[in-house]
Write a structure and sequence with these properties.
The protein contains eight helices and six strands; from the N terminus they run αβαβαβαβααβαβα. The chain is α/β, with parallel strands linked by helices.
Length: 215
């Protein structure tokens, strides 16, 4: 045991830094201050309704960015995908690793199909489940992927969606994605982004969806 250690009265205290030979005080390590961004309690949050719409690629991808960011902040986030049936995409694999819920509620794209009764029923059942989650406040961030399509096709009532969003608990963020967002939904939202197509590898180069970029 050194002399300086034997003179310490508090065994848990940090040992004193020896003075340098020059007689100047030893530099003190800077203490990290908390950053300007933190997650406040629900009552202090401004919950947003965010809509990503338009014909361009990136609507779901942008929503997944919010999902990742919110999870990194320790918020409870989840995504419910209307119409889609894929459960093994890259986002699903990542969500499993992160302990985040991404649930597919559909049976795949039904555009051009002669009979969509089953798909409409799946969408309505999915919406009933999502309604309960929105009202319960179970999630800090809830992403409703492709919800605009069942609304556009008349499977889910637009007025009911808007009323449910308005009744959500304070501080809850909801992200809605999909083409053809109705004007009523746009008016009810706080943030609306329209994705436009300038170039697309499928259109210009006949390059189909690729793992890790598209799925």
């Amino acid at each position: 045991m050194t002399h300086s250690e034997s003179d310490r009265t508090d065994p848990l205290a940090q040992p004193e830094q020896p003075s340098p030979a020059s007689g100047r005080k030893a530099p003190v390590p800077k203490q990290k201050k908390p950053g300007p961004y933190h997650v406040p309690p629900r009552a202090q949050r401004h919950g947003l309704v965010i809509v990503n719409t338009g014909n361009g690629k990136g609507k779901t991808t942008a929503a997944l960015g919010v999902l990742l960011r919110a999870t990194g902040r320790g918020m409870r986030a989840g995504m419910f995908q209307f119409v889609k049936s894929l459960t093994t995409g890259g986002e699903h694999r990542a969500a499993t690793r992160l302990g985040v819920e991404i649930v597919s509620l559909g049976d795949g794209c039904t555009l051009g199909q002669p009979d969509t009764a089953d798909d409409a029923a799946l969408a309505r059942a999915g919406w009933a489940k999502v309604c309960e989650l929105i009202v319960s406040g179970e999630y800090d961030v809830l992403i409703l992927d492709e919800l605009t399509l069942p609304i556009k096709w008349g499977w889910i009532d637009s007025a009911e969606v808007i009323a449910t969003l308005a009744s959500r608990p304070i501080g809850t963020h909801v992200v809605i994605t999909g083409r053809y967002a109705s004007q009523e939904l746009i008016d009810a939202a706080d943030l609306v982004t329209e994705m436009d197509v300038i170039k697309h590898p499928l259109r210009e180069q006949k390059v189909h969806a690729q793992a890790g970029v598209d799925v």
